Amino acid sequence: MQTRLFRGGATLLFVVGALQACHGDDDGGTTGPVASIQIAVAPVSLVVPQGGDATVTLTLTRGGNFTGTVAVSVEGLPAGLSASVVPAALVGTTNSAAVTLAASASATPGTYTPTVRATASGVGAASASVAVTVTAAPAVAIAVTPTTLTVQAGATGAATVNLTRTNFTGGVALTLDAPPVGVSGSFTPASVTGETAALAVAVAASVAAGDYPVTIKATAPGIDDRAAVLTVRVLAPAGTLALTLTPSGTSVTQGGAGEAFVNIARTNVTTPVTLSASGMPAGLAIAFDENPTTLAQARLTYSAAATTALGNHTITVTGQAAGVQPASGSFVVQVIVPPPVTQVEYQFCSASENPVFFAVRDGIGSWQVVTSTLSSGVYRYRFAVSQPVGGVFYVQQSGSAIAARGVAAPTGWPSTRLVPDALAQLLPQVAAPTYETTVLFASAEELATQGLETCDESLSTKSVWLQVAGVGNAQSATLSLGGSTTTFDGLLDLSPVELVGVRSGVVDFVGVRQALQSGVPNMLLDVRGLTPADGSTLPFIADFDGVSAYPPATAQLTVANALGDALLTFGRFFTSHGEVGDLGGAAAPSAATFRTWYGLPPARLQPGDVHASTVLAVPAASATSEARFHVRYSTIVQDITQTLGRRLPTPSVSSVGTTSYRRLRIQGTLPSEYDALVSATAEQSGGESQVTLLATGRYLAATGSAAAYDLTIPDLTSLAGFPVASTLPAGEIEVTVSGIGWIGLGTLAPLPSNDVSFLAALKEVKVMVP
User: Which of the 8 DSSP states describes residue 1?
Assistant: First the structure.
């Protein structure tokens, strides 16, 4: 018998051979092949955690035409380590087996070298060793510091959670396990990949004093849950005072008086509160009806002498009581001149809308800065106009109502609510500038009316989800709700869809299904009187094949004075709850002047409903960008003719400012059909500043002629607080001038009502500003 040992690579190989020499009779000089077996295992080393297992593959090599059954076993296993072989006997052509080594949960960590042995009848045994390293099972231990946390009721305390890891590097989720009522916690981070996390324990003011055990639980995939107990010791809250004033801003005329109320919130305070006021200018007096007071609301009166300085004055009211810290609240008193002929108040309904600079002009006199008061969440700019006309000049930063609307209306047009969403592809798509300056010249009455409408453009909005059905592969649907419109492609889009920017309050829904290529509507839906919550799903399915869907009413639309322009026509719909959205129309521009327009059948109309048939005309070829626009408001869909106005004469634009404050002068004439308003917007493509000048027809008529305009950006750099960064940059400036006209109510745009028509024309020119 001869045995040879081979070592090669990472595999340990034993070869056993059997050799029988010839003795005695002559065998003719021949010897048969030697039967043998060889085994190899891979890999030759394993890492097995406590409670786990791992597998090596045994490969058998047969020599000398040996075909017998080979038995495989594992020897030399320590306590806690077991082995299984599948299959344990290699028969016929089976030449491999899986050897699984398993460590019990109590196995002692360390490295062991069991032997895999192969035996068979008629051949020598073969063996191979495997290095098995048993490691401790992955685990996490948790502790909290301090173990007892003292927190006053109504306050928050901090603790630290410490993790000790054993063979585990994954994220560990920390939670409070069934904390007592009124006790909550937040972890930073909530999923820990390191060893520590910060725990903030908040105790509600209603929690009674005492000790509360709070269990902190640590969980992670593949390991056992662990917990630590933190004792939260709650102390009774200390006495506190809080003061607020109602209203937070008010006004008083020179020589006038008014009242406000001090709201006093007490916590564990029973002693009287003594009130005092500070910050009054000379001539402004403050008095309290009851002082000291035990009331929850104390009346405050103020009076201004005839010589009190005009402007905003911040008055601070302080309350003091025995044993507690003083508390303060403030309100703004705006001292104004006695009521003139017209009192104007400009309102902005959010901090993002509130201008960073606001100035006014009475008549054609000098500009004066006006500061705001904040009352009921509304920023109010109050000023007097004693002359027949006046002006306002204000600068808004990013986040203003104009910037937030996203899709630009034709520059200078007064309101995107007049522009169908379907026209967006034809309108300039520009990033919202950082600064937007608006200058309005108008009559005193128009200023007073427009000032109260500035809030309308900045009311809060919400997002709502809608399920859609019945829109085929070659169809699309226009879905409109409360001024928000989105398009649903029957082939590409999935239901539900999100409607973003839906107005708050009661809103109405209108849906239109149209052919994808032509844009012609073929089925409508409307649902009225909805008050969806932000993030909610509407309680119906917009199913254009359902029983609630109906075909649109149709009528002929004739476009007059088209002048060969490419025309687009669209429908729009308004209800008593405001604008709803698009009703569809001709998707591709053409010169055809006989069109079909679409709307709701008479049976679907409700009081206050009105359709808007819209025509946009764009010259096929023009050296300057220009367009004309016509809207006809009709309650019922019927045959109508819409006559476009004349083209707007090209304006003259010149630079009149300096490099430190670049200003423009814009002059031109207006065809008589655009006698209601002229607008000029100047901006640089991609720039950070935009300036819009507007002048009403009444202002032009009072200061010269309604048929001509001469608008110059005012120089207000000498006024305190003027943001110089809002001025126009050097380079090429795009100036878009619009002439607008209508018959009906409205200051900068008509109010939608039956038989009212709205006309506009715009023209864009470019000028180099040094």
Answer: -
Same domain, 271 and 215: no
As beta bridge partners, residue 653 has 666
pLDDT digits (tens, 9 = 90+) for 34-60: 889 999 999 999 999 888 899 999 999
Collapse the DSSP code of 25 into the 3-class scheme (helix H, G, I; strand E, B; otherwise coil) and give the result: coil
Q: Which of 247, 310, 317, 249 is nearest to 284 (CA)?
A: 310
Q: Which residue has the tokens 């990949």?
A: 193
pLDDT digits (tens, 9 = 90+) for 86-140: 999 999 888 999 999 999 988 899 999 999 999 999 898 999 999 999 888 888 9
> What tens digit of pLDDT does each residue of 615-661 get?
999 987 654 588 999 999 999 999 999 999 999 999 999 988 777 78
Q: What CA–CA distance (Å, rounded) separates 317 from 275?
A: 7
pLDDT for residue 684 = 85
> Residues 103, 207: one domain?
no
Q: Are 560 and 643 in contact (CB under 8 A)?
A: yes
DSSP track, 579-626: EEEEEEE--S-B---EEEEEE--GGG--TT-EEEEEEEEE-SS-SS-E
Sequence length of the chain is 770
CA-closest candidate to residue 694, choices 626, 642, 627, 749: 749
In a domain, 259, yes or no: yes
- Nearest alpha carbon to residue 39 among 121, 100, 133, 120: 120
| Confidence at 581, pLDDT banded by 50, 70, 90 | confident
Per the rule left: phi > 0, alpha: psi between -120 and 50, beta: everything else, 169 is alpha
Question: Residue 459: its pLDDT value, please?
Answer: 59
Residues 173 and 81 in one domain: no
Give the pTM: 0.53
Reduce the DSSP state of residue 518 to 3 states and report it: coil
The residue among 338, 354, 378 that closes a domain is 338
Residue 69 contacts residue 102 (beta carbons within 8 Å): no
CA separation for the pair 63, 19 (Å, rounded)? 12
The full DSSP string for 160-216 is EEEEEEES--S-EEEEEESPPTTEEEEEESSEESSSEEEEEEEE-TTPPSEEEEEEE
Would you say residue 640 lies in a domain? Answer: no
Helix (H) or strand (E) holding 255: none
CB 90 within 8 A of CB 143: no
Task: Write the CATH number for 97.
Answer: 2.60.40.10
Q: 149 is in which domain, residue-wise?
A: 139-235
From the number of C-beta atoms within 10 Å of its C-beta (0-12, 13-18, 19+), residue 350 rates as: middle
The C-alpha atoms of residue 458 and residue 352 are separated, in whole angstroms, by: 9
Q: Which among 743, 741, 760 has a CA at the least distance from the CA of 696?
A: 741
User: Is 126 found in the same domain as 8?
Assistant: yes
Q: How many domains are there within the chain?
A: 3
Confidence (pLDDT) at 336: 81
Please report whether residue 176 resides in a domain: yes
> Measuring CA to CA, which residue among 606, 714, 599 is closest to residue 663?
714
Which of 512, 617, 498, 504 has its CA nearest to residue 560? 617
Neighbours of 70 (CB within 10 A): 25
Residue 198 lies in a domain: yes
3-state secondary structure 216-277: EEEECCCCCCEEEEEEEEEECCCCEEEEEEECCEEEEECCCEEEEEEEEEEECCCCCEEEEE
Of 322, 338, 354, the position where a domain reaches its end is 338
Same domain? For 117 and 161 the reply is no
97 and 182 part of one domain: no
Lowest mean pLDDT, pick from 15-29, 389-403, 431-445, 567-581: 15-29
Residue type, 12: L
* CB within 8 Å of 60: residues ≥ 6 apart: 37, 38, 39, 70, 90, 94, 95, 96, 97, 118
Residue identified by tokens 């008083």 is 252
Task: Let me know whether 108 and 199 are in one domain.
Answer: no
The closest alpha carbon to 414, from 626, 677, 208, 183, belongs to: 677
Which residue type does 507 have?
Answer: V
Do 130 and 13 sit in the same domain of this protein? yes
